[in-house]
Amino acid sequence: MRVLFAVSAWSGLYRSTVPLGWALQAAGHQVRFVCHASEVDTLAGAGVTPVALTDGWTMSFAGRLRNYLDAVGGTWPFTELPPHPITGEPMRDLREFDFHAFMSGERPRLEKVLADSADAVVEFARSWRPDLVVHDLLSLEGLLTAKVLGVPALAHPWGPLGTDERDAEAAMMPADFSGAFARYGIGAMSFDHVDYFIDPNPPALAPPTRAMRLPVRYIPYNGPGVTPDWVLDEPAKPRVCVVWGNSVTTMFGPGSWVVPDVLAALATLDCEIVVTLNLADFAAMRGQLGDLAELVRLVENVPVHLFWESCAVVVHHGGGNAVLNGAIAGVPQLAITNGHDQHLIGQRLADSGAGLRILGHEANRDNLRAAAARLLGESSFREQAQKLRTEMRAAPSPTQLVATLEEIAGRSAGPRGDADR
């Protein structure tokens, strides 16, 4: 069997698919990940085979553009203006960027780039002949290719986000700027074209979808790393981990950088504080700690799944991967959300009883401290977090899902199936 994965140009959107790629490879199947050139090293480092075919806006630019339009429309929640869509620098005036002038010149280029991307993936797939196509929610090329080839399309989300969301802000359906679906005679781009929904979420977080749901156990993959020695020691105090990637600030600007306030709030509680950062943020964070330096353990580029089970609470920005990492670790979570899909994901976490959500523009030391104190002190949060972990561990593993995918491919295979697949 051959399985084509189509992923977007942001590792957080496809890391949850990597273990399924491993399972398929281990079962003897052929796997390819079509991607943007920016993702080749990340995917190759994960042990799967990338094929760089797609192009278009980066996720950072698309996020900043959306935030700019929110500011123009009066729905931007922060006091500071959003970052400039192109440069990422702080804006002093919204007139620094002319959206209409930009789009008048950009749209023809974008349409051609996206049309070329769609054609490149379809052409590759026609040659390679996959039996299934697995795609993240923002990969238009993956869904299109499955429909063109007449093979099952399997959407794979990065967190508690589905294909039938009613919240307009959180609905992550890709826009078909080039009209590729109509050009290939499929009609309009719609998640109604999705055949199956591979769902790594526990039932308490399960998002809405009209596709056939295929539950799968979430296997954390956050890149390579080594377990630090201190993880093996029993913490003397409850351990609280704060994880904050630079993507939040890149998209939402300095007003979203709440880590110093989080650390100041946690410093008033009797806990051990761990902050995970990438190398680019490490030096800057050290300079901001001041008197907190001796209370905080900074760790560089350590995958959170290596130590989150040792934590009493984890704090993050409400990204889908972060929520699922916390859920499989069975740890209460505090999600500080800023926009896009984060608000809905954070709210679903809070509704499950396994965590709390605070809006980023409302986060201050008082309510951060109060939320952390509740998560540390009220047993119901850990009980619900443990329930999520139990639910997730009961789901079929990626290895077990492979058999289901083989059946799906077998049912859909006609004269195009080969004996060596």
Key terms for this structure?
2 domains, Rossmann fold, 14 helices, six-stranded parallel β-sheet, seven-stranded parallel β-sheet, globular, disordered C terminus, 421 residues, alpha/beta
Structure write-up:
This protein has helices spanning about 20-25, 40-45, 60-70, 100-130, 140-150, 180-185, 245-250, 260-265, 280-290, 320-330, 340-350, 365-375, 380-395, 400-410; strands spanning about 1-5, 30-35, 50-55, 130-135, 155, 195-200, 210-215, 240-245, 270-275, 295-300, 315, 335, 355-360. It is of the alpha/beta class and about 425 residues long. It folds into two domains: about 1-220 and about 395-410, Rossmann fold (3-Layer(aba) Sandwich), CATH 3.40.50.2000; about 230-395, Rossmann fold, CATH 3.40.50.2000. α11 links the parallel β12 and β13. It is globular, with a radius of gyration of 22 Å. The model is unreliable at about 415-420 (pLDDT under 50).
Topology:
Blueprint: E1 2-6, H1 18-26, E2 30-36, H2 40-45, E3 50-54, H3 59-72, H4 99-128, E4 132-135, H5 140-149, E5 153-155, H6 180-183, E6 196-199, E7 212-215, E8 239-243, H7 246-252, H8 259-267, E9 272-277, H9 279-289, E10 296-300, E11 313-316, H10 320-329, E12 333-337, H11 342-352, E13 355-359, H12 365-377, H13 379-394, H14 398-412
Parallel strand pairs: 1-2, 1-4, 2-3, 4-5, 5-6, 6-7, 8-9, 8-11, 9-10, 11-12, 12-13
